[in-house]
Amino acid sequence: MTATEEQGAPEVLDEAECRVLLRRTGVGRLGFTDGALPAILPVSFAVHDDHIVVPVRRGSPVIHAVRGAVVVFQTDSWGIEGPAGWWTVTAVGPARVVSDPMEVDRHDELDLFARRPEAGHVYITVQLALLRGWRGGFPLG
Q1: Which of the listed CATH numbers 1.20.120.920, 2.10.25.10, 2.30.110.10, 2.40.100.10 matches domain 8-134?
Q2: What pLDDT is recorded for position 9?
Q3: Mean of pLDDT over the chain
Q4: Based on the number of CB atoms within 10 Å of its own CB, is 109 exposed (0-12), middle (13-18) or buried (19 or more)?
């Protein structure tokens, strides 16, 4: 028996399970290209319809970096499958900046977040075009 078989290879999750798990956390990471270099930003988020919704400050440099780009979003959790369990979900899709005041107001009215985002905020949305997920136990190596 190989070490991977003894440890149990990570379980590949289907899209439906990925969608359920995405709604379990409120913090993730947004990956994008900034000045031709990879960047990863921790963000608060919510899921609405088929989109990740991220509030950001108006004027944030991330807005320019993601506008019209395909980005990656990732969230995970450790220990929810028992003391040594984990899961992770990644979503890849086109990003859109929601900055029109009327559209920002419509997003605000959805009450997606426990606290209202800061004044002067906009939203970045990421379409859930490609979802992948894994679940497993330790050790990973």
Answers
A1: 2.30.110.10
A2: 78
A3: 88
A4: exposed
